Amino acid sequence: MKTLVVYDSTYGNTEIVAKAIGAAIGGDVKVVRAGEVGSADLGTIGLLIVGSPTLGGRPSPAVQDFLAGISESAIRGVTVAAFDTRYSSRLVGVFGYAADKIGTGLKTKGGTLILPPEGFIVKGKKGPLEEGELEHAASWAAGIVRQTCSTASTKR
Q: Residue 39's domain spans which residues?
């Protein structure tokens, strides 16, 4: 299955997670920044994963623009997943996290959310990632693959 991992990254942490997810998915995977995605990239995918740092409880402006630019027909029926990077803070929890908003945006555009949105923890605003988060990303990606295969086999 052709997979597209779209991300934005402020301090490099989300990019690291996006690449770890892409590597764990394996096969025909393209990992690209949100501002560099073309409409042709969306036309032939079976799985779309979108990630962003959490900024004020929302995805980055580049990811918000990417989501706003997706036509409903572009991802209708496409399996989708959402993730973010975040740091642990009560204040951040009050505003919410980017992954939830990304997941909602992808579902609104017609995507089929395969797993609940996922967060990966950074140490403070600039990071680095907490220990074990790359393994967490690989495990989450493996869950997406398992769920996608399971869903595909039940549709037959």
A: 3-155
Domain count along the chain: 1
Q: What is the pTM of this model?
A: 0.94
Cα–Cα distance list, 64 to 2, 23, 81, 89, 90 (Å):
23, 25, 15, 23, 24
In the chain, the largest separation of any two C-alpha atoms, in whole Å, equals: 46
> CB under 8 Å to 109, separation ≥6 — which residues?
67, 70, 71, 72, 74, 75, 76
Measured CA to CA, the distance from residue 145 to residue 141 in angstroms comes to 6
Using DSSP's 3-state secondary structure scheme, residue 59 falls into: coil
Closest CA to 108 of 145, 80, 140: 80
Q: Cα–Cα distance between 62 and 106 in angstroms, integer?
A: 15
Bridge partners of 55?
A: 58
Q: How far apart are CA 68 and CA 125, in angstroms?
A: 26
Q: Residue 23 belongs to a domain with what CATH number? A: 3.40.50.360
Q: Report pLDDT digits (tens) over 16-70.
A: 999 999 999 999 999 999 999 987 889 889 999 999 999 989 999 999 999 999 9
